């Protein structure tokens, strides 16, 4: 708190000081007034970065306290009431979160977030299905059949769950051929396939750590919408990016492909939401530590320019979807009970 000055009018010092405090709140400058015990009223400002601005307003006010621009009591009351309502909403959200979370905290990279979760069917379902299908399809390295000329179960399963059947794609060159033929499940199933154990483990750990808190906080239905929209936007980006042959060598990490697999687009959507939402809503009860933001963004850039065979379009598209959700979805949608 910084002292800005004292109003010493013997007849209406308190009234004038409160009028100035009303004006400051319309400028988003938090302040308070109190008596100095000698008939004057002192103005204090909370934000150190706004002290000079507050001092300038104080000087202007003393020079012309009856200027119409300082008569904003109604607007100041509206702002205060709005902040009280927001604070109540924040406290209610935190209360609900606390009631639904165990007392222990998570550890590791997301240690500032709640740890073990309960009643998170969407998150656990995605993890379970991803583990089953990734192992069942041989992590994109299917074992061939021991019988010459026959296709193994792993090969059949992988081909049926990919976005497009590899054989049909070779014949037609149409990434949407299988979907156009009515195999619409292919739009969603690539999310559950993974290329190797590291790919699966990284995505599932990140999904659990980010998704569990979001599902518990906002409910399974809203969380499911965020998760699937992030995945679908990521998949769309990956499908419509140009092929490697159309890009310079240094930019081929941004090449598109109909054969991308994994849940990383959805993971980056959850990350984007949790990264940006607290900037939009100062009362949002969750935060991602800055070091983890840098880790996720750094990994995104490293994958683009340092590793081949990564579906970076899915990462970027999912991130954009999550950020858009954070910026555009109103509080009432997130806070309404299911």
From TrEMBL:
UniProt superkingdom: Bacteria
Biological processes per GO annotation: proteolysis
Protein's membrane topology: Multi-pass membrane protein
Enzyme class: hydrolase
Enzyme Commission number: 3.4.21.105
Record InterPro entries: GlpG_N_sf, Peptidase_S54_GlpG_N, Peptidase_S54_rhomboid_dom, Rhomboid-like_sf
Transmembrane portions of the chain: 119-140, 197-214, 223-241, 261-280, 316-334
Main localization (coarse): membrane
Record carries keyword Transmembrane helix: yes
Domain Peptidase S54 GlpG peptidase N-terminal: 1-75
Domain Peptidase S54 rhomboid: 182-329
Signal sequence segment: none
GO cellular component terms given for this protein: membrane
Keywords, alphabetical: Hydrolase, Membrane, Protease, Transmembrane, Transmembrane helix
GO molecular function, one term: serine-type endopeptidase activity
Subcellular location: Membrane
Alphabetized PANTHER family for the sequence: PEPTIDASE S54 RHOMBOID DOMAIN-CONTAINING PROTEIN, RHOMBOID-RELATED PROTEIN
Name of the molecule in the record: Rhomboid protease GlpG
Protein species of origin: Stieleria varia
């Amino acid at each position: 708190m910084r002292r800005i000055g004292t109003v010493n009018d013997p007849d209406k010092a308190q009234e004038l000081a409160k009028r100035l405090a009303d004006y400051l709140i319309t400028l988003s400058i938090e302040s308070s007034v109190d008596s100095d015990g000698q008939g004057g009223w002192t103005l204090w400002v909370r934000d150190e970065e706004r002290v000079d601005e507050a001092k300038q307003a104080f000087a202007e006010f003393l020079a012309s306290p009856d200027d119409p621009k300082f008569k904003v009591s109604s607007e100041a009351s509206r702002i205060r009431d709005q902040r009280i309502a927001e604070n109540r909403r924040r406290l209610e959200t935190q209360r609900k979160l606390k009631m639904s979370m165990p007392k222990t905290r998570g550890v590791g990279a997301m240690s500032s977030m709640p740890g073990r979760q309960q009643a998170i069917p969407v998150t656990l379902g995605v993890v379970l299905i991803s583990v089953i299908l990734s192992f069942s399809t041989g992590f994109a390295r299917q074992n061939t059949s021991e019988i010459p000329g026959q296709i193994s179960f792993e090969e059949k399963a992988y081909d049926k769950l990919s976005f497009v059947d590899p054989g049909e794609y070779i014949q037609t060159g149409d990434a949407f051929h299988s979907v156009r033929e009515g195999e619409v499940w292919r739009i969603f199933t690539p999310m559950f396939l993974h290329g190797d154990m590291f790919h699966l483990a990284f995505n599932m750990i990140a999904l659990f750590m980010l998704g569990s808190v979001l599902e518990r906080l906002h409910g399974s239905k809203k969380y499911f919408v965020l998760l699937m929209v992030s995945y679908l936007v990521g998949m769309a980006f990956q499908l419509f990016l140009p092929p490697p042959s159309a890009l310079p060598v240094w930019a081929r990490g941004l090449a598109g492909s109909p054969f991308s697999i994994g849940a990383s687009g959805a993971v980056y959507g959850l990350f984007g939401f949790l990264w940006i939402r607290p900037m939009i809503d100062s009362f949002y009860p969750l935060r991602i530590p800055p070091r983890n933001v840098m880790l996720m963004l750094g990994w995104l850039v490293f994958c683009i320019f340092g590793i081949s065979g990564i579906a970076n379009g899915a990462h970027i598209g999912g991130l954009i979807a999550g950020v858009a959700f954070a910026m555009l979805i109103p509080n009432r949608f997130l806070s309404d009970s299911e």
